Amino acid sequence: MKNSFISLLSIFVSVLFLNVGAAQEYKVVKNTSLETHISITGVFKQNDYQNIISSLGALKSTSPKHRRFLYLDSPGGDYFVGIALADTVRNMGFTTIVRNQCNSACVFVFMAGRHYNQGVKHIGSSYKVSRIVYRGATIGIHRISSNKNLSTQVAQAIIGNAVRSFNESDFRDSILIEKLLMTDSNDLYILSEEDMIRNNISIK
Protein backbone atom coordinates (compact mmCIF):
# COMPACT_ATOMS: atom_id res chain seq x y z
CA MET A 1 0.00 0.00 0.00
CA LYS A 2 2.81 2.37 0.91
CA ASN A 3 4.61 1.64 -2.36
CA SER A 4 1.40 2.33 -4.30
CA PHE A 5 1.02 5.68 -2.55
CA ILE A 6 4.62 6.63 -3.31
CA SER A 7 4.04 5.70 -6.95
CA LEU A 8 1.00 7.95 -7.04
CA LEU A 9 3.05 10.79 -5.61
CA SER A 10 5.73 10.33 -8.24
CA ILE A 11 3.03 10.42 -10.94
CA PHE A 12 1.29 13.48 -9.51
CA VAL A 13 4.48 15.50 -8.97
CA SER A 14 6.40 14.38 -12.00
CA VAL A 15 8.40 16.97 -13.72
CA LEU A 16 6.40 22.32 -10.96
CA PHE A 17 8.23 25.43 -11.57
CA LEU A 18 7.72 26.15 -15.24
CA ASN A 19 8.34 29.85 -15.82
CA VAL A 20 8.37 29.94 -19.61
CA GLY A 21 6.45 32.73 -21.32
CA ALA A 22 5.43 36.31 -20.73
CA ALA A 23 5.64 37.62 -17.17
CA GLN A 24 2.51 37.95 -15.12
CA GLU A 25 0.77 41.29 -15.52
CA TYR A 26 -1.66 42.85 -13.07
CA LYS A 27 -3.98 45.68 -14.10
CA VAL A 28 -6.80 47.57 -12.38
CA VAL A 29 -9.40 47.88 -15.13
CA LYS A 30 -12.00 49.67 -13.02
CA ASN A 31 -12.25 50.60 -9.35
CA THR A 32 -15.27 52.44 -7.94
CA SER A 33 -17.22 52.40 -4.69
CA LEU A 34 -19.45 49.67 -6.14
CA GLU A 35 -17.19 47.61 -8.41
CA THR A 36 -13.57 46.56 -8.78
CA HIS A 37 -12.37 44.92 -12.00
CA ILE A 38 -8.88 43.40 -12.10
CA SER A 39 -7.07 41.51 -14.86
CA ILE A 40 -4.17 39.09 -14.43
CA THR A 41 -2.47 37.82 -17.57
CA GLY A 42 0.65 35.84 -18.43
CA VAL A 43 2.62 33.11 -16.70
CA PHE A 44 2.47 32.83 -12.90
CA LYS A 45 5.98 33.54 -11.57
CA GLN A 46 7.48 33.78 -8.09
CA ASN A 47 8.89 37.27 -8.64
CA ASP A 48 5.50 38.75 -9.63
CA TYR A 49 2.89 37.49 -7.25
CA GLN A 50 3.86 39.24 -3.98
CA ASN A 51 3.19 42.63 -5.56
CA ILE A 52 -0.08 41.36 -6.99
CA ILE A 53 -1.27 40.01 -3.64
CA SER A 54 -0.31 43.28 -1.93
CA SER A 55 -2.19 45.25 -4.59
CA LEU A 56 -5.28 43.07 -4.23
CA GLY A 57 -5.19 43.49 -0.46
CA ALA A 58 -5.14 47.27 -0.86
CA LEU A 59 -8.48 47.12 -2.68
CA LYS A 60 -10.49 45.93 0.33
CA SER A 61 -13.92 47.43 0.84
CA THR A 62 -16.40 47.01 3.69
CA SER A 63 -19.44 47.86 1.58
CA PRO A 64 -21.91 44.95 1.27
CA LYS A 65 -22.80 46.22 -2.22
CA HIS A 66 -19.23 46.19 -3.51
CA ARG A 67 -18.50 43.54 -6.15
CA ARG A 68 -15.06 42.33 -7.23
CA PHE A 69 -14.26 40.78 -10.60
CA LEU A 70 -11.02 39.10 -11.63
CA TYR A 71 -10.29 38.43 -15.31
CA LEU A 72 -7.76 35.64 -15.85
CA ASP A 73 -5.80 34.87 -19.01
CA SER A 74 -2.90 32.55 -18.22
CA PRO A 75 -1.34 29.31 -19.48
CA GLY A 76 -0.35 28.54 -15.87
CA GLY A 77 3.08 28.63 -14.27
CA ASP A 78 4.27 28.26 -10.70
CA TYR A 79 2.02 26.05 -8.56
CA PHE A 80 2.78 27.91 -5.30
CA VAL A 81 1.85 31.23 -6.89
CA GLY A 82 -1.47 29.76 -8.04
CA ILE A 83 -2.25 28.47 -4.55
CA ALA A 84 -1.32 31.79 -2.89
CA LEU A 85 -3.41 33.83 -5.34
CA ALA A 86 -6.32 31.41 -4.91
CA ASP A 87 -6.28 31.92 -1.13
CA THR A 88 -6.32 35.71 -1.58
CA VAL A 89 -9.08 35.66 -4.19
CA ARG A 90 -11.22 33.30 -2.09
CA ASN A 91 -10.78 35.34 1.10
CA MET A 92 -11.58 38.67 -0.59
CA GLY A 93 -14.49 37.35 -2.64
CA PHE A 94 -13.80 37.83 -6.35
CA THR A 95 -15.97 36.60 -9.20
CA THR A 96 -13.45 34.95 -11.51
CA ILE A 97 -13.84 35.29 -15.28
CA VAL A 98 -12.03 33.61 -18.19
CA ARG A 99 -12.45 34.92 -21.73
CA ASN A 100 -9.50 33.16 -23.35
CA GLN A 101 -7.58 30.58 -21.29
CA CYS A 102 -6.86 29.52 -17.73
CA ASN A 103 -4.73 26.42 -17.51
CA SER A 104 -2.58 24.53 -15.02
CA ALA A 105 -1.81 26.66 -11.91
CA CYS A 106 -4.31 29.30 -13.06
CA VAL A 107 -7.17 26.86 -12.42
CA PHE A 108 -6.59 27.07 -8.64
CA VAL A 109 -7.28 30.82 -8.85
CA PHE A 110 -10.27 30.45 -11.15
CA MET A 111 -11.95 27.83 -8.96
CA ALA A 112 -11.56 30.17 -5.94
CA GLY A 113 -14.16 32.55 -7.37
CA ARG A 114 -16.94 33.41 -4.94
CA HIS A 115 -19.15 36.30 -3.84
CA TYR A 116 -19.90 36.99 -0.18
CA ASN A 117 -23.50 37.96 0.36
CA GLN A 118 -22.46 40.63 2.85
CA GLY A 119 -19.75 41.92 0.50
CA VAL A 120 -16.86 40.80 2.70
CA LYS A 121 -15.79 37.64 4.48
CA HIS A 122 -16.35 37.37 8.22
CA ILE A 123 -17.07 34.61 10.70
CA GLY A 124 -20.25 32.86 9.65
CA SER A 125 -20.55 34.82 6.42
CA SER A 126 -22.47 33.19 3.58
CA TYR A 127 -21.35 33.13 -0.04
CA LYS A 128 -22.07 31.63 -3.42
CA VAL A 129 -19.61 30.20 -5.94
CA SER A 130 -19.06 32.78 -8.67
CA ARG A 131 -16.95 31.75 -11.69
CA ILE A 132 -17.64 32.53 -15.34
CA VAL A 133 -16.25 31.19 -18.61
CA TYR A 134 -16.93 32.70 -22.02
CA ARG A 135 -17.78 30.26 -24.78
CA GLY A 136 -14.65 29.27 -26.66
CA ALA A 137 -12.38 29.84 -23.66
CA THR A 138 -10.41 26.92 -22.24
CA ILE A 139 -9.96 25.67 -18.69
CA GLY A 140 -7.20 23.06 -18.71
CA ILE A 141 -5.82 20.83 -15.95
CA HIS A 142 -2.96 18.38 -15.62
CA ARG A 143 -0.82 16.89 -12.91
CA ILE A 144 1.62 19.16 -11.14
CA SER A 145 5.13 19.06 -12.51
CA SER A 146 8.53 19.80 -11.05
CA ASN A 147 12.06 20.03 -12.38
CA LYS A 148 13.35 19.21 -8.89
CA ASN A 149 13.76 15.90 -7.08
CA LEU A 150 11.16 16.05 -4.33
CA SER A 151 11.03 13.81 -1.28
CA THR A 152 7.88 11.80 -0.62
CA GLN A 153 7.13 14.06 2.35
CA VAL A 154 7.36 17.23 0.25
CA ALA A 155 5.33 15.68 -2.57
CA GLN A 156 2.65 14.62 -0.07
CA ALA A 157 2.51 18.17 1.32
CA ILE A 158 2.09 19.58 -2.20
CA ILE A 159 -0.80 17.22 -2.93
CA GLY A 160 -2.39 18.04 0.43
CA ASN A 161 -2.18 21.76 -0.27
CA ALA A 162 -3.72 21.31 -3.72
CA VAL A 163 -6.60 19.27 -2.30
CA ARG A 164 -7.10 21.84 0.49
CA SER A 165 -7.30 24.66 -2.04
CA PHE A 166 -9.85 22.83 -4.15
CA ASN A 167 -11.91 21.80 -1.10
CA GLU A 168 -12.02 25.37 0.16
CA SER A 169 -13.16 26.42 -3.31
CA ASP A 170 -16.04 23.87 -3.19
CA PHE A 171 -14.39 21.84 -5.94
CA ARG A 172 -14.68 18.16 -5.06
CA ASP A 173 -15.42 16.60 -8.45
CA SER A 174 -13.91 13.10 -8.33
CA ILE A 175 -13.93 12.86 -12.13
CA LEU A 176 -11.84 16.00 -12.59
CA ILE A 177 -9.60 15.18 -9.64
CA GLU A 178 -8.76 11.93 -11.42
CA LYS A 179 -8.01 13.91 -14.59
CA LEU A 180 -5.79 16.19 -12.53
CA LEU A 181 -3.87 13.20 -11.19
CA MET A 182 -3.50 11.29 -14.43
CA THR A 183 -3.16 13.83 -17.26
CA ASP A 184 0.48 14.13 -18.31
CA SER A 185 2.17 17.38 -17.31
CA ASN A 186 2.95 18.08 -20.97
CA ASP A 187 -0.71 17.69 -21.90
CA LEU A 188 -3.98 19.29 -20.81
CA TYR A 189 -7.42 17.95 -20.06
CA ILE A 190 -9.79 20.69 -21.26
CA LEU A 191 -12.99 20.94 -19.25
CA SER A 192 -16.09 20.18 -21.28
CA GLU A 193 -19.31 22.15 -21.01
CA GLU A 194 -20.70 19.25 -18.98
CA ASP A 195 -17.72 19.47 -16.59
CA MET A 196 -18.33 23.18 -16.16
CA ILE A 197 -22.04 22.86 -15.49
CA ARG A 198 -21.40 20.07 -12.98
CA ASN A 199 -19.00 22.35 -11.08
CA ASN A 200 -21.18 25.48 -10.97
CA ILE A 201 -19.22 27.32 -13.65
CA SER A 202 -21.40 29.79 -15.53
CA ILE A 203 -20.98 29.84 -19.32
CA LYS A 204 -21.57 33.06 -21.23
Blueprint of the fold:
Blueprint (H helix, E strand, L loop, with lengths): L1 H11 L12 E7 L3 E7 L4 H12 L9 E8 L4 H14 L2 E9 L2 H6 L2 E3 L10 E3 L1 E3 L4 E4 L10 H17 L5 H9 L6 E2 L2 H6 L2 E3 L1
Kindly describe this structure.
With 204 residues, this protein is an alpha/beta fold. The chain has one domain: 2-enoyl-CoA Hydratase, Chain A, domain 1 (Alpha-Beta Complex), CATH 3.90.226. Helices cover 37% and strands 24% of the residues. The chain has seven helices and ten strands. The strands form two sheets. Strands 1, 2, 3, 4, 7, 8, 9 and 10 form an eight-stranded mixed beta sheet that branches. A hairpin with a 3-residue loop joins strand 1 and strand 2. The model is unreliable at 1-20 (pLDDT under 50).
What's the short version?
The chain is of the alpha/beta class. It has 7 helices and 10 strands.
Total helix count?
7
Q: Please give the radius of gyration in angstroms.
A: 17 Å
CATH-level-2 architecture: Alpha-Beta Complex
What is the averaged pLDDT score? 81
> Strand tally, please?
10
**Termini separation:** 45 Å
The CATH superfamily turns out to be 2-enoyl-CoA Hydratase, Chain A, domain 1
Helix amount:
25-40%
